[in-house]
Amino acid sequence: MRSGGAFRPSIARETKLTEASVSRILAELRAENLVQETRQQAPYSGGPTARVTLSKDIAIAGIELSNSRLSFGIGDLSGALNYVERLPASPHLDQDEFERIFVESVGTMRGWIDHRGATIRQAALSIPGYGRAAGNPIYPWDMDRLQTFLADTLGGISVTLTNSVIAQAAFHRYSNTTKYPVSGDHLFLFVGHGVAGVIVDESAPVDAFSAFEIGHMVIERNGLPCRCGHKGCIEAYTSLRAISKIIGVADSAVLSRGDSFIETLALDQSVHDTLRERLFMLGLGLGNALNLHPLSSVVVSGWPSLMPAEDRKAIAEGLNESLLGGFHESRLALSFIAPSIGNDPRAALYYAAYCFVRSGGLDAKADPRTALEEIA
Ligand SMILES: [Zn+2]
User: Fold this and answer.
1) Ligand 1 center to residue 228 CA distance, Å?
2) For residue 152, what is the domain's CATH number?
3) Distance from residue 350's CA to the centre of ligand 1 (Å)
């Protein structure tokens, strides 16, 4: 998934299996149409070999609750999105309303699937704030009811729930379209409608990460109201919704303008100064978060990544005022990657692809004992 394919010798090396075992397993995966192989010249000595890629015939579904909408998408393991439907959803969506919209969208999606004779092998649903032991403060829903509802509505399709920022991390980590700037452990910070991060441990799978709700760190007592009910949260100052008010563009319009929206705006000096101030506040909160969990690298994705480098220095200035020992490039690497604004549910789709691959292409709901007996 990360490299878009691999040659047999490198698969053998990475899995520590013999090339004969790799051949046998690939033959099985090919028989089930889970992988495809094309003859291609390897970029090293040893002549032509087969490049193994994930099959493009596997249909998966990604569903995202983000950007004030509920998005449904069907695509394949390469991340291509072949079907999308997006319905408006209030940021304060309650569970009854969620279920109503969901049922409606599943109906339309089923029509599309049936028309093409496709079978969805894996689905993923990402929700902001999901996964906290004490419940979700953003969407305080009954999780047992949600699980039952999804099982009933999706009629047998295996579905995995995840937090929005983990889906974003999966998108950047496993899509081979974005060049990821760091390779070691780091904090991946996403600044979208919410502001959240995940601590990426390179040796751990993406579903082992837990979300880092930096957006609800209060940085201004009695400050701007936040959707969580508190005042003065980082999110109230730095989220896409907060900055859409400053630049005078509705957040729905920001979404339709896509990744380069800031460049397309002619911002006057006072707007520029306000955005810099918001970046400074983001840096201030980030420094506080890093005091609690020290890391030497941070990757920022979201609207700040679209700001000129000169303006992004405000983040470092904020960090300098809160991070223990101050900010210095030699101790903290700060990098930026282009966000995927308005591309929902692409992140959930990548997460679904990841879940499918991680399960070895087996039906995630299959009883592992039965699977073992079959192998025996
Ligand atoms: Zn808040």
Assistant:
1) 4
2) 3.30.420.40
3) 28
- Residue 117 CA: distances (Å) to CA of 120, 157, 231, 327, 375: 10, 15, 50, 56, 30
Domain count of the chain?
A: 3
What pTM value is reported for the model? 0.85
Is residue 176 a part of any domain in this protein? no
Beta bridge partners of 197: 189, 212
CA 88, CA 218: separation in Å to the nearest integer? 29
* CA gap 92, 65 in Å, rounded: 11
- The candidate with the shortest Cα–Cα distance to 54, out of 82, 34, 71, is 34
For residue 195, report the distance from its CA to the centre of ligand 1, in Å. Answer: 10
135 and 272 housed in the same domain: no
In a domain, 76, yes or no: yes
Question: pLDDT for 110-165, tens place per residue?
Answer: 999 899 888 899 999 999 888 877 788 788 899 999 999 999 999 889 999 999 99
Gap from CA of 33 to ligand 1 centroid (Å): 46
Instruction: Tell me the residue range of the domain where 292 lies.
Output: 181-337
